[in-house]
Each structure stands twice: as C-alpha cells, then as structure tokens.
Amino acid sequence: MEFGICMFVTDYSMQAADLAVAVEERGFDALFIPDHTHIPASRLSPFPSGGDLPPDYSHNVDMFLALTAAAAVTKRIRLGTGICLVAERDPIVTAKEVASLDHISGGRVDFGIGGGWNREELEHHGVPWNRRWKIVRERVEAMQAIWTHDEASFEGEFVNFDRVLSWPKPVQKPYPPIFVGGDAPGTFKRVLRYGDGWIPMLAGGGNSFDLKAARMAELSALAQDAGDARYPITTFGTPRDPDAIRQLATAGVTRCIFGLKAAGAEEVLPRLDKLARFVDVVRGGG
After folding, report:
1. pTM score, two decimals?
2. Does a cis peptide bond (omega within 30 degrees of 0) precede residue 168?
3. At the N or C end, where does the chain have fewer CB atoms within 10 A?
C-alpha cells in the first residue's frame, strides 16, 4: 500500500515547491493537486461534500504549474492531477502539458481525470452538461494518439485534427497512467475503455464505505472478464482509520490519498507530521 497527499495550492497556502519537499521528506509516495479553472459566482451547483464551498476552489494556482514546481524540487514522489477536468482543457495543449510534466519529472506523472461536478463551470467552457463524458473520452483518446504517434490524427464529434507533430513524448510508455474518477453507472466502462485505474472519492457525497468496497470488487470482476489484470485503485478522501485502510487493501486499493485543507506552512506541516506518524503505524512501524 502506498500513501499520498492531496491539497489545493492557493494564493494563501503553502506553495507547491515547499509542499512537495515536505511530502517527500516525510516518506509519502505521492502528491496530487486538484484542478478548477474558476468557480462561477452564481454557485448554483451544490458542493458534493455538502455545506459551503471552501475558498480553495476559487483561489487555486493552476494545477499543471503547481505540479511542475513540485517536479523541479523532488526526485521520488509521484505527481498526480487530482483530478484534471479534461472537458475544460484543449486536448492538444493538455497532451503537451502532461507529456512535458512527465519529461521534466523523469516519468513520475499519474494522470487523474474526471468529468466535473460544477455544471456552470463546464458550461462556461462551452461544454454541454449531458455530453461532458463523451467530450472527456474523445479528448483522452486524442491525447493518447498524440502521445503514441509521431504524426497523430483524430476524428470525432467534438475533437478533430489531422496530422499533428508534438514532442516531447511521455517518458512513461505508452503514456502516464490514466486514473478515471467518478462513481456513476458508466464509470467502469470508461476505466476499461481508456483508463489504467480508478480513483474514487470515499469522503462526502453520501456514499457508504461498504458500497465503495462492493464497487471495487465489481471493477476487479469486470477487469477479469475482459482478460485484464486487476486495475489499480487510488482512493481520495481516505479515512484515518487503520482498520478501514486494511479493508481497502483487501478490496484492491493500492494507494490511499489523504486530503489536506489549503493553509500556510504553520498549519500544513504539523498535519503532515501527524499523518506521517499515522502511516507509520499502518505500515507496522509503530
């Protein structure tokens, strides 16, 4: 089992380079940074975790810039998009960003993707709410073509381009692992079609722990039926409970990510220290 941290890097928080160094020094395996281009002021879409939307979501530094800063000062930890809102990003530009980050980091990128929960945010980017996952699929498959071909073309309903040249190619072959987020009825079809793993949220949203464990078993069975090895699972919103983490490991989870509220170093570092001690206990070191 591996363990990592997810935190928005904002204009008022500990910055990405310092956070990444602290995460790596404390023995964690990964740092994930979330993605929102903006937050609509109308606030019609309810926050999935309930309550008021934290300011992290509208004060965040661009995800790819933050991860690049993290890559420059670390050697070991995986660097994850947690998650990238693919439907809001141009696929040719995003393919270049992901490949460049993988190149700069020496092949340490995990590409978490999702469809998004904020309808107004997506619509500001011209994305029809009920077509967002079709757009995600086309953009991901278009990026996969760019990463794996010297001359890439793609023809779809929403993405079309002919014979593009784009380097660098990702260090990881054929491309960085793609972890598909969400827990909708069609999620596992997406994982099986263009993903390399699943990245569910355990906290909030009204989903019970037992239900998520059942879904993990379902994914394992689907992968087996398709002739694939078990898909790796990374969990967001992981409970700070050793028994729960042992259950997750049994269910097929390979990495647990703990969320931290965006804050300055004086708040974040003690929280990291506490989590590091907790992980040491889970690993049997204390």
Report:
1. 0.95
2. yes
3. C
